[in-house]
Amino acid sequence: MTLTDNVRSALELDHVESHLHPRGSFDVADHATPTGREEVWRFTPLKRLRGLHADAGLSGRTQKLTWNDVEGASVSYVTGDDARALRGVSGWAPSDRWSARVVDEVPATVLVDVPADTEVAEPLVIDVTGTDASETTGGHLVFRFGTHSKAVVVVNHTGSASVAAVCEIVVGDGADVTVVSIQDWADDAVHLSHHQARVGRDASYKHAAISFGGDLIRMDANVTYDGPGGDAELLGLYFADEGQHIEHRLFVDHTAPRTRSHASYKGALQGKGAHTVWVGNVLIRKVAESIETYEENRNLVLTDGCRADSIPNLEIETGEIEGAGHASATGRFDDQQLFYLQSRGIPADEAKRLVVHGFFNDLIRRIGVPAIEDKLFAVVEAELEKNVTAVPA
């Protein structure tokens, strides 16, 4: 499947060179190895990527994939010409070297298929378990949701690994889809990932990126539209500890009229050297009249020695829109909240825990997958147990 003819021709006429939407290419030779001086790589500690951004091998077999059987959805490994035909199925072409290498060199694709007019009653959970962080590997996943289908897919990453992965998501017209990616890796893991979704006419797409574990996590979550009426909600939750680098980048490309997008990411940081990066990019093309978009990022700093970079961007090529905005904030505990709780007899440490849980609670509920809510609240509590008590009252 490709972008519809009318949308494609509009994009070709409407293309404007900018850092927000560079032209892509499947030819690895078209992409230089990043040096760290490029705008899109300046926050990422390249030396900790173990060569995944450059020319590290992608053939390692250090991940084990398992999944539950759910009626209405199929999961399979695709190889050979069938796998090759799925490269770029989302209408995307790689804009950097590592993702071009993944689609060029990784021999197999993990394919999730949900047929048209099918409602999957329970979440499909794919467990990705890393077994060895010393060997680099690559992965390609494709999720295809037919017209008027409804499904939830959860990808849960655990264990030790050094992996570069591309996930392409095709949301058919009128479909209602949720994709959740949980990065709960071991402390030595490195995960470089790109999620690319194409949202059909009058379809609803929700993407949730949840990052807790790993030494270095960098995820791109991108969206384009294949017709008017598409709605995308991008949610993120992350918690960085001492020495961790967690980076989330979004690019919502409004390629059709009357489309909507809302991005909301929340993160907490604690421990010396904890570093989070959030970069939100929204492009409203000339063809995208009557769209509505908003992006926001909130960061809660729990201890000294942390750094949170937050950069929202809007690029607007038409004034015929319903609304566009962004917000970003980074700060410490709200002293008034802590005073209110302590004045009612709640100990300081417990008051801090309640504030952090309240900070994340709304976003966890918005993900809308009850099966993982308890897990997420438990992970937040486990993170707080590490050193939130070190925060000055």
TrEMBL record:
Residues 134-359 form the SUF system FeS cluster assembly SufBD core domain. InterPro entries: Fe-S_cluster_assembly_SufBD, SUF_FeS_clus_asmbl_SufBD_core, SUF_FeS_clus_asmbl_SufBD_sf, SUF_FeS_clus_asmbl_SufD. SUPFAM superfamilies: Stabilizer of iron transporter SufD (SSF101960). It comes from Nocardioides marmoribigeumensis. Transmembrane segments: none annotated. This is Fe-S cluster assembly protein SufD. Belongs to the iron-sulfur cluster assembly SufBD family. It comes from the Bacteria.
